[in-house]
Amino acid sequence: MIRRMEIRRSTYFVLAALLDGPLHGYGIIKHASELSGGEVRLSTGTLFGALDRLLESGLVEAGEEEKVEGRVRRSYTLTQDGHAALAAEAGRLRHAARVVEMRVARTAS
Amino acid sequence: MRRLLVLACCAFPPEHRARRSEEVVDTAQLAAKGSTWRGVREALSLVVAGLRQRLRAESGRSLRDGFGLLAWALAVVNLAVALAGVALCVHPPVVFFVGLGGFHPFVVDWWWIAFSVAATGVVVGLVLGNRRLAVGAVIANLGIVGYDALFLVNGTDWYSGHLVVFSLGQVGPNVFPVGRYWLAAAVVLALATAAAPLHRQPLRRLPLAFVAALLLVVLSREISGSFLFLLWPLVATVVLAMVFGGVAPRLVVLAVGGVLVALPSVVWYSMQPSVHPHPVVRGAVAAGLAAALLLPLVQLTRRRLT
Predict the structure, then answer these.
(1) Are B53 and A49 within 8 A, CB to CB?
(2) Is the pTM of this model over 0.90?
(3) A66 touching B, CB under 8 A?
């Protein structure tokens, strides 16, 4: 059962970044920026705030902590619920965009 | 840069820090890419995220936990008042001697010693989570402050009793706390300690409490012994309780308790024609006190986030 939660723009791109596979914190920041065409620049505080909420609601899973080149890392994976929530949000955005596009096209013609 | 980021992580609740601090700092360092400005931006974002996390953690706390916080805050201030009184008796500021011809009549008698011991006992009892010690000390504290307020302060003359030591060299509300003012604090401290869920705290809290109390003593000496400056943190707490009381019930208890402590002295001063003669000022003070008591409580009726 997916818990209904409000998905903010930054959270949406955090989830989207994890679609391609597990990523660690900085990997998510970079990938989210690429996916949004540079529009979403996550700060570390925003990223971990979003990750905490996503972990709590079961949309994301955290892996074990590991040390790579002296830095502590943990990878995050999208769960099935996370996948479904992201797909539902994408559908909602698509519908919202379609409604506006249709009206804009009608008023333009 | 790393030090700044580690410092920024202190904004997170301790349990979160223990779990993820290194990972968060390493990620912030990578995101800063060696730039100082980006590093500062990352540090600020961590402070904001940490404070949000603390607020979320607060929503899980109960009103009873609020009594613990109130008891802790009042116990530290109570200890500071006792220590500041002793310090003023032993080593009064120069301003005391002006008009007194180099003579000051205050000595550290049994009352000051008993007050200091009881105030210390309350702090120790709260840190050890020892209900018997904390409640015993708080009752003794109430008895000592009450004895001074009811038997040593002369009738309507608030400038008598032991706490009058805070009044020399001061004018107007700056004499806080003199006369019977501190009785309200002792009563609220006793009630809060009795209602608080007491748990054993890390022992490092004990020296921290004394350092905090000594800091308050130093600040009070800056204005020749007055504790009126505590009004500002109280106002800040009330404003925070008005804004965040719905998610942080502990703040509401702290704010309402603090206002109850300040209530008698504020009312007494606002009633003095020599201080605020205009009835409009009295009306404004009454409205402000009512708002400071009621608005935080109204926040409690709002749905709490989980």
Answers:
(1) yes
(2) no
(3) no
